[in-house]
Amino acid sequence: MLIPHPSMLVAPQNTLGNDMEGQQQNFDGPLMPNQSNIPSEFVWPDNEKPCLVAPELKIPPIDMKGFLSGDPQTVSKICAEVSEACKKHGFFLVVNHGVDKKLIDQAHKLIDTFFCMDLPDKQKAQRKLGEHCGYANSFIGRFSSKLPWKETLSFHYSADNSGKTVEDYFVNVLGEDFRQFGILFQEYCEVMSNLALEIMELLGMSLGVDRECFREFFKNNESVMRLNYYPPCQKPELALGTGPHCDPTSLTILHQDQVEGLQVQVDGKWYSVAPKEDAFVVNIGDTFMALSNGIFKSCLHRAVVNNQIVRKSLAFFLCPNREKLVTPPKDLITMENPQAYPEFTWPSLLEFTQKHYRSDTKTLDAFATWLREKNK
């Protein structure tokens, strides 16, 4: 059921006027539903404009409880399903994951609370140019065209047990009043990290390597959590909530609210991934594609917007510890399948995608070329 956001019931002063073209933009989510003429910076080229109605992508619901049961027949079936999906497009669902529904619901409520604050309050956490954490209103300042119709808040999570990185972030950046935000999202990230490590066991077995191989690699992960807020857009046929991209990270665990928007490109055609309240959408990122020696695919995906209701999502991006060398296990390097990409550390790929390259299907190839030139 579509319930209009409260901000749609009032008519606040425009933050993006028709005379703003070419000037510095301000994107404030709760005020955007009233923009009847969206600025040209948000209009995507004809060959990239969204198809608002796309066929649903059939992706396997992976039963994590069944996988962890240890039943050989069940585990074998699940690994085969994951392997098939990840070789084709890198997307699957996880169900019976054991994550408390109350925790998920509370996290979604806090998304509303944060993004409905006044813009100056949100901008206390403004992301600095070249950095990947903080508040971003449509990546203004980073890109000059094809801007995404969204706001985000991203923050760092460390699994090395050295401190409460998420809680400290909210208190240090936004103040003591945000400690409960920090406590809630600290718990959410810890739960996501544990789930990600279980999924890494599954991916390892699906690739035919030791079950502990990737779990051990990501044990002390230094990951990123992102809150996404997509306000209604009066011309959704012209804009995109998130442009086509592949995640440069290792693994994404996404929880969508009940508003459709996620689309995945398979064999040149766009498909929608329908929201399922009891499931997480999982997809392979470029870093794990390199770890799998190109066997598992990082796939192009995007988010479309609508003209009726806010869409929200919670995205946990699993990343390795910054000192880990990203290189495939020896079992995945053969005469028939030699090492596809040079070894690297995650911070170098992050630098490349934040400062030098807008992520797409060729990110890893472009990064490999850049890395070789840099290391000469």
From TrEMBL:
Its cofactor is L-ascorbate. Residues 220-320 form the Fe2OG dioxygenase domain. Pathway: Plant hormone biosynthesis; gibberellin biosynthesis; Hormone biosynthesis. This is Fe2OG dioxygenase domain-containing protein. Belongs to the iron/ascorbate-dependent oxidoreductase family. GA20OX subfamily. It comes from the Eukaryota. Keywords: Iron, Metal-binding, Oxidoreductase. It catalyses: gibberellin A12 + 2 2-oxoglutarate + 3 O2 + H(+) = gibberellin A9 + 2 succinate + 3 CO2 + 2 H2O. GO terms for molecular function: gibberellin 20-oxidase activity; metal ion binding. The keyword Oxidoreductase applies. Pfam families: 2OG-FeII_Oxy, DIOX_N. One of its GO terms (biological process) is gibberellin biosynthetic process. It comes from Sphenostylis stenocarpa. The lineage of its organism: Eukaryota, Viridiplantae, Streptophyta, Embryophyta, Tracheophyta. InterPro entries: DIOX_N, IPNS-like_FE2OG_OXY, IPNS-like_sf, Iron_ascorbate_oxido_reductase, Oxoglu/Fe-dep_dioxygenase_dom.
